[in-house]
Amino acid sequence: MGARCVLLLFFGTVAYWQPALLWFWASLSALLFSPFIFNPHQFAWEDFFIDYRDFIRWLSRGNTKWHRNSWIGYVRLTRSRVTGFKRKTIGDDSEKAAGDAARAHRSNVFMSDTFPCIIYTAGCFIAYTFVNAQNGVNTELTVNSILRLIICAIGPIAVNAGCLLVCVGLSCCMGPLLGMCCKKTGAAMAGVAHGVAVICHVIFFIIMWILEGFNFARMLIGLATMVYIDRLIFKFMTLLFLTRELKNDHSNIAFWTGKW
To answer: Which GO terms describe its cellular component (predicted)?
Structure first.
């Protein structure tokens, strides 16, 4: 939420720049950097970098064997607040971190989580179409900003889906063989998929910038609209298609290692 708000504030600053906005960004910068400069809470540089190292490990662990503190565990726990957990257990250690949350009613989830996202997405979409409307120009250029937005928003999802299909095929066919010589086959497969996803998003952000004629302000609002459209798609998929979460983590490990 914070990154998305800063992105929209940055767009507003770039699109409607005036010197008075320097005071706002100076105040915001002071709030960000004052803890590092004045150190009121006895900030330790070594601990900061150690925590950053642990954060990187937190993002990548949990795909070869279960770990209590991992990104995938956090995602499953967050998703279970909507889907709930299945009651069936197998006595695995990974089930200890799971709760007994029941599935929330879809109307409650829609009104509290999905509907606000629809409002945010609609607001960004209106702003994006407005800045691409070419109001007050003498020579109009034939453009299709909505098609441009659809391509850049749906494109990463399609590429990531294809990458996951390739990864699950490799893990099923070669995962058990690779596991004999490499103990971190699941982590390697997940790392490749996550790396492709990051590179794919960066490429489509650049494509949006190129399609907007290297206009930085229009690229920023296009980027924000892409993010909100993707979030809305995933929220609808979670609401309509996902079943309850398994309490154990075997399905995630089997997906990456091929050991079903």
So the answer is: 1,3-beta-D-glucan synthase complex; plasma membrane
